[in-house]
Structures
1.
Amino acid sequence: MQEINMLLSSQRYKYSSAIFELLKSKTYAVIKGEPLSLLTYGACGERHLGDIDLLVDRKDLKFVETILLKNGFRTTLQSRADKIMMLSSAHQIAPYIKEMPPYKNIMIDVNFDIFWGEYDGKRIDITEFLSDVIEVDIYGCKIKSLTPLKTMVQLILHHYKDMNSLYILSTRENYNISALKDIYYLLINNLNDLSLNKLFDISEKYAIIPFVYYILYHVGILYKDDILDYYIKEFETSEGKYLLNCYGLNESERREWKVDILTRLKSKNLNNLIRSDFTEKDKKKIELNRREF
């Protein structure tokens, strides 16, 4: 299975090499995927892999879309109204797809934010966030990626969104436990780059301490480790503890869970646990997201 995974991934990068060559003049990063596999487990192909995810500055979206179209990719959204809706309410544009015979299609997701669309706090300046990207070799393809510290920030925010989005909770049977595994091994295998002081300082800078606590707390349920326990203790805040018992991505849609954390982590049907809570407004939002994604 790992050999097949690596073969498919290597082909994705081969078919995308022209894109990365054209992106050299821009500041961007490949996030998650193979760069995360390298940082977390020391080799490519160690995670279940699918799309290639790019993080770019919003001002470069048109440039990125243009080179994707010129290199045989097509967008999954045709309506101008749908495109505007995604730009105004999401953190990414619609995926771009290219045929990859004889394998599966290749999909590239283009993100312009590391927060979710519903976030109502101060957003992170993506130009600044990408200011210290590093070059990584993935199957002979030179790409730009995030440092371990910025990778942790992006990953924590991504998984917080995944564990709290009404749309995702309504469409997935269970939490993505492998994501919590990635967080644990990213931390343990990069302790110099992810020292407590460094992680705390950047979390304070970006005002994300409660989200970091939330994710580390869940990781701590699955992995008993003295180092991890120390991080969890140092990141604990009253707001972080409050978030543990809630779901929803901002205060206006946030509501309390009716079951405890262990029940949620073991659940095989998260939607069953919360669907009775959904208002008509929630249902309309979920349906809109279903159409867009």
Note: The longest strand covers residues 106-111.
2.
Amino acid sequence: MTFQRVIPIWTIILLTACSGTEKNKDRDNLHFTQYSESVKDTFHIDIQLPKEYKDNPDKKYPTLVFVDGNFYFPVMAPIFHQYEETGLLEPFIVVGVGYKSLKTMDSLRVRDYLFPKALPSDELKADGGGQNFYNYITKELLPKIDSDFRTDQTDRTLLGHSFGGYFVLFSLLQQSAKQTNDFKHFISASPTLWYNGFYLNKLPELLLTNEKKLGLYLSVGALEDSTWSVAPVKKLTQEFQNNEIRGLDFKSRIFSHLDHMDVSILTFTKGLQELRAAK
């Protein structure tokens, strides 16, 4: 396994994990833990409400759900508040799905984001817990978020990077197979498409029976490994473009001069802007 194919996030960039208190200094940020019967583990959830939330008691808001929450919630939450304030994006309820620490996240994301079980050629140990984690997100977490906050249940976006980007695409596959409406938009940054013999390459064909209006934003950095990162995204993009998938708003971007760890933030902001412009 080459270093470019699996990059431990916490060893590359040191970022303080989200606070363990029930209420952070920002009055719009909330934190709670939730035990999952599907995964048999406890997740640490961070919530950021729109700045205007308390002033609009009858308004419901779209929801953004980030995996790798320990890393991306503290990065993206203030960006979305600033984008809301300046009108660059509409207000969102932002949800970060994380673990008790950044270091814990770096190990357990392999357990939770991948499916099926790893092949010997993948050169990593992964039991394929992605199905369990998907069940947690859709059957346990989303109902709680909808119960506790004023969400628009028809307008949710799932966002992830690297292994998290793989999980986003796997979730789209699962949602299509189950004919559910848990997420409307899917934003996948630099997904590890090489996993399990390019298991997710079946996605365009399986979506041919799609009847729902969905959005998918796929990205990679031009400076990433050309064989294991850039080429697979190009190939999957071509498959999506060759198949006329009814109801799917598909967008794919290769960001020049960006490497693996640089792609995510730009993907999340531009993906939301482009997908929501077409809603």
Note: The longest helix spans residues 130-148.
